[in-house]
Design a protein that fits this description.
heterodimer; A: alpha/beta; Rossmann fold; Barwin-like endoglucanases; eight-stranded mixed β-sheet; six-stranded mixed barrel; 26 helices; B: alpha+beta; Alpha-Beta Plaits; two-stranded antiparallel ribbon; 22% strand
């Protein structure tokens, strides 16, 4: 029988804890530092009558839906949807509802820690914040002195989040050139391809589209707001016909009108054939193309000349030619109220950049751009950005990338990809580091809210990288697999314990929203803003001494003016001296009353008071129909030329196809006795970040591997049998789920499980980590991680 | 005095289980229970890859049907199961002797044992939590991403739920049992 413990008790425990003498060794693997003794700590409380509601923004995934946190006697008892936010439209998904469990997770990081045992051992010493800062400062001074003030000898990496910018400010003023974030593990290729082709990464108007092609974007399970809510109220004969393209039958397939079981990684051939039919049969929007297309004829000749016929595509994709013809015709008949959904996901195949380009151009052929029912750019309410000058470091080297070896022979681009944008390629960077191909020494890294051990292909290599760093500082809320390899752990408070930078959300119905602090931080945790304030106060002066020592110009400047004056330029504490509340008020100062409304309601947009209205139990009006921003650019793309860019000749200079072109190497091929590994998401888990959430684990506590029912029969694999999955990257074990929902030469399991961190008492070794077997295959244009091109072997054990 | 009921536009359901989590958080439902207050019913998909029947994989969000002629209430020997003033089927835990007759009698499998109290528990339409503090709807209704549910008073002919039942076609589950469920599924 389970014994329930109330949140109140948890808090009482936490108070007792914070007076425990410091200096004791803490093993994150043991429960010795939680106050629960033998009582199971996970539980939930019923709401009661008295309480207050504080508006916040969810941080359990990237959507940032608006929530109202119910606080009863200082304890958060419930998260409810906040109706004011047009992006999330009065809803919270299962993960949003379960956010309380992140706040009251007994395993969360509570105090600053310094590593005691071997890297990865999970043995840490509890220290004070001051001790942690001093330790970091001392190590950094040594490293920077030895590296002659090359600031780029430190890598900074971060996961997605509103406060990512705060952390990035530290990276900028510190002066490193090595920044990596989730982009190349996530949506780098899709955002870049749409930006280059249409001038921006657009929104989809699912409230008004009548025909939707959704390929490789499982919106019923990988929830995106408002897309998920808008679309699935209208499919299956209720306004929007949904053509869903995915090798596996997901919950989105269950809500579709047509499901096409495409061969993995061949979507580009599908889109090229749709384009072929559209051009061959002249189905496209002739006036739109005439006015808003660049190099249309060149593209037309390219598509028709290559004979990208439906029959050609059928052989590659497995989708019948007849069906491809029908879909092209139907799409163009419904256009411009037809959407080929851009999606928001990681990169599945090497062809991904070209796939997204082909999708964007196909969308343009129907004219469904910057118009109701199509892809829309929407409007964004501007905020006043607070920018501080970053110091210049003479000895800071450029980003640790390498040009291609034979650049002299006219070979363009970089060693691991054609273009380095934003952070560049995470796995490319990691592998270069491990292979000793760095242009200089990188010896330390700061990791903020990021779990590269689990979120990047080939976990073994990431662990090796972390182990080889002289100093790893992790700022996080949970003892993730990555945190286990840190030298210093700085505990951040959860999103319910802090006010974050106010954020503006563009779209057809734009709004500004703010994450307000719901309760004071528990234990000794702090917001990243305060963590960086404390750290830079300790770091700034000693690091300036290093700069002085290695930078003649700085010494000369001091001679000319004064130490004080020159130091002021290099003062790292500057960006962190204001409170977040103060900065937020400044950011929205141009909107009268906005700062106060954001505190009270969590959401603001001009005229909200008069426009916002509850229509029925489930329907709200945010903007009246005639005030919505469907068209903001006269129906034109947002590119510099104001046209759809079919032919990117500048890309050709970098060795990238100027127009989407099919290549033999993109074809789906799986050797006999092997299986293509497909990964994905579902509605009850957000990557590895929610793996220890007691409430979500109550819905699903391990991942199963989907195996085609017939294949399973032949191999005598039954439901629940233990299966070894192996590749050149590693092997994992998980339980079998034989099903008709997947094809014979592929397997699938969801991402986010298989944690090896003993600090996560619920998540530890439950299910399997996909990235332990996904090989490090690099997408050629932006260096994104290719998630669906690994073939694995299966063995029943 | 009201007669609370629920309409389910079940075709909207994406089986995300937000309703289930909201219910547990609101009402402090026992974690780890195999059956609890609210769930989404899914049938095994028909056909073989890639010729699968989409219709066979429909999602049926469900919970206690708050039957107007509830078999659970009829069989309860201690009157623990009873109708409250709003025609909501409730369990008075202090009277429950865990005979489990109600669990057997319920055609919808809507009841489970709360191992903390060793009594039978089920959906209450949030009567003792949200409705008690003056809110007009349940946690499952409020949180649903695709807005499956409409909660309201069917004794009020002007209520939103009454209007919908007048204008839309609907069906009830296992109607032939004569249980007169108050969960209405829109066609």
């Amino acid at each position: 029988m389970k014994i329930e413990i109330s949140r109140r008790r948890f808090l009482q425990g936490s108070v007792a804890l914070s007076v425990v003498a410091t200096g004791a060794t803490v093993s994150l693997a043991q429960k010795s530092d939680n106050a629960f003794g033998n009582v199971p700590a996970y539980g939930i409380t019923k709401t009661s009558k008295d309480g207050v509601e504080i508006p916040t923004l969810c941080e359990i995934c990237v959507n940032k839906c608006a929530a109202l946190a119910r606080v009863e006697n200082g304890v958060v008892t419930k998260l409810d949807p906040n109706p004011y936010f047009p992006k999330s439209k009065n809803m919270l998904c299962p993960r949003g509802n379960a956010g309380i469990q992140a706040l009251y997770d007994p395993d969360r990081l509570k105090y600053p820690l310094i590593r005691e045992g071997a890297k990865g051992s999970g043995r840490f010493k509890r220290v004070t914040w001051d001790e942690a800062y001093a330790y970091i400062a001392q190590k950094m001074v040594t490293i920077l002195d030895e590296e002659k003030d090359n600031r780029s000898s430190f890598l900074f990496c971060a996961g997605e989040g509103i406060a990512e910018h705060t952390f990035k400010t530290f990276y900028q003023s510190f002066g490193s050139s090595n920044w990596l974030n989730h982009a190349s593990l996530c949506l780098q290729t899709v955002t870049s391809a749409y930006s280059l082709t249409l001038g921006a990464y657009p929104f989809s108007d699912f409230e008004n589209a009548n025909y939707v092609i959704m390929a490789g974007a499982n919106r019923a399970e990988a929830i995106v707001t408002p897309d998920t809510m808008d679309l699935f109220k209208r499919t299956q004969g209720r306004g929007a016909k949904l053509i869903y393209v995915d090798p596996i039958f997901t919950n989105t397939a269950a809500k579709a009108d047509v499901w096409l079981a495409i061969k993995p990684g061949t979507d580009l051939a599908f889109v090229l054939a749709l384009t072929y039919v559209t051009l061959e049969e002249k189905l496209y929007n002739i006036p739109y193309v005439k006015e808003h297309f660049q190099d249309f004829e060149v593209y037309q000749n390219h598509i028709l000349g290559h004979q990208y016929t439906p029959e050609w595509a059928e052989k590659i994709t497995g989708i019948p030619a007849k069906q491809i013809r029908t879909i092209a015709r139907d799409f163009m008949r419904h256009a411009p109220k037809a959407i080929y959904y851009p999606g928001r996901r990681s990169t599945f195949a090497k062809s991904d950049f070209q796939l997204r380009r082909a999708m964007a151009i196909f969308q343009g052929l129907g004219g469904g751009i910057d118009t109701k029912g199509g892809l829309v750019f929407g409007k964004t309410l501007p905020l006043d950005e607070h920018e501080a000058d970053s110091p210049m470091y003479a000895n800071a080297q450029a980003r640790a990338i390498r040009k291609k070896e034979d650049a002299s022979k006219g070979e363009a681009g970089y060693a691991d990809c054609a273009i380095v944008s934003g952070g560049g390629s995470w796995i490319g960077w990691r592998n270069r580091f491990l292979e000793g191909k760095m242009p200089y020494n990188v010896r330390g890294m700061f990791i903020y809210k990021h779990n590269p051990v689990l979120n990047m292909p080939n976990s073994a290599k990431t662990i090796e990288m972390l182990s080889k760093m002289d100093l790893v500082v992790a700022i996080d809320t949970m003892p993730s697999d990555t945190v286990m390899y840190a030298d210093v752990v700085l505990p951040e408070c959860t999103y319910l314990e802090r006010t974050d930078p106010v954020k503006t959300f563009g779209g057809v119905e734009p709004a500004i929203a703010q994450r307000n602090k719901v309760i004071e931080p528990l234990f000794e945790t702090k917001p990243v803003m305060d963590i960086l304030k404390g750290l830079t106060q300790k770091l700034s002066k000693p690091l300036f001494e290093i700069t002085k020592k290695h930078d003649e110009e700085v010494r000369a400047s001091i001679e000319e003016s004064s130490h004080e004056e020159v130091y002021a330029e290099f003062d790292l504490t500057k960006p962190f001296m204001h409170s977040q509340e103060e900065l937020n008020a400044q950011a929205v100062a141009k909107y009268p009353g906005a700062a106060e409304i954001l505190k009270q309601k969590g959401v603001y947009y001009p005229l909200m008071e008069t426009m916002f209205e509850q229509r029925t139990l489930n329907e709200y009006q945010y903007y009246p129909e005639n005030s919505k921003f469907y068209t903001v650019n006269g129906g034109r793309p947002k590119t510099a030329s104001k046209k759809v860019e079919c032919n990117l000749s500048t890309m050709a200079d970098k060795g990238v196809d100027a127009m989407p072109t099919w290549k033999e190497e993109f074809a789906y091929h799986v050797p006999t006795d092997k299986f293509r590994l497909i990964t994905g998401r579902h509605a009850q888990f957000t990557q590895s970040g929610t793996s220890n959430n007691a409430m979500l684990r109550d819905l699903i506590d391990e991942n199963y591997i989907w195996i085609n029912a017939n294949v399973a029969k032949q191999k005598k694999i039954h439901f629940g049998d233990r299966i070894e999955v192996s590749s050149s990257a590693g092997k994992v074990f998980l339980k079998a789920y034989p099903t008709e929902k997947i094809g014979p030469n592929m397997v699938f399991f969801i991402h986010g499980f298989g944690s090896q961190s003993k600090g996560l008492s619920l998540a530890y070794q439950s299910g399997a980590n996909d990235n332990a077997v996904i090989e490090d295959i690099i997408e050629p244009v932006y260096g994104a991680s290719v998630m669906h091109e690994t073939n694995v072997e299966l063995r029943k054990v | 005095m009201a007669t609370y009921a629920m309409v389910l536009d079940y075709k909207n359901c994406i089986n995300c289980k937000a309703c289930e989590v909201a219910c547990k958080e609101e009402n402090g439902v026992l974690l780890g229970a195999n059956y609890h207050r609210i769930w989404v019913g899914v049938n095994e998909i028909q056909g073989s890859y890639p010729d699968l029947s989409i219709a066979s994989n429909a999602f049926y969000p469900s919970q206690c049907q708050h039957c107007d002629n509830a078999p659970c209430q009829e069989v309860c020997p201690t009157n623990a199961t009873h109708y409250d003033e709003n025609r909501v089927v409730q369990v008075d835990a202090s009277k429950c002797i865990l005979c489990s007759y109600c669990m057997v009698a319920c055609p919808y499998d809507a009841r489970y044992v709360d191992e903390r109290t060793m009594t039978v528990d089920k959906c209450t339409f949030c009567s003792d939590t949200r409705l008690a503090r003056g809110l007009k709807t349940t946690a499952c209704q409020a949180t649903c991403p695709t807005k499956v549910r409409i909660f309201g008073d069917i004794s009020d002919p002007k209520s939103e739920i009454s209007e919908i039942l007048k204008t839309r076609e609907y069906f009830t589950l296992k109607a032939s049992f004569g249980t007169e469920p108050k969960l209405f599924y829109l066609k």
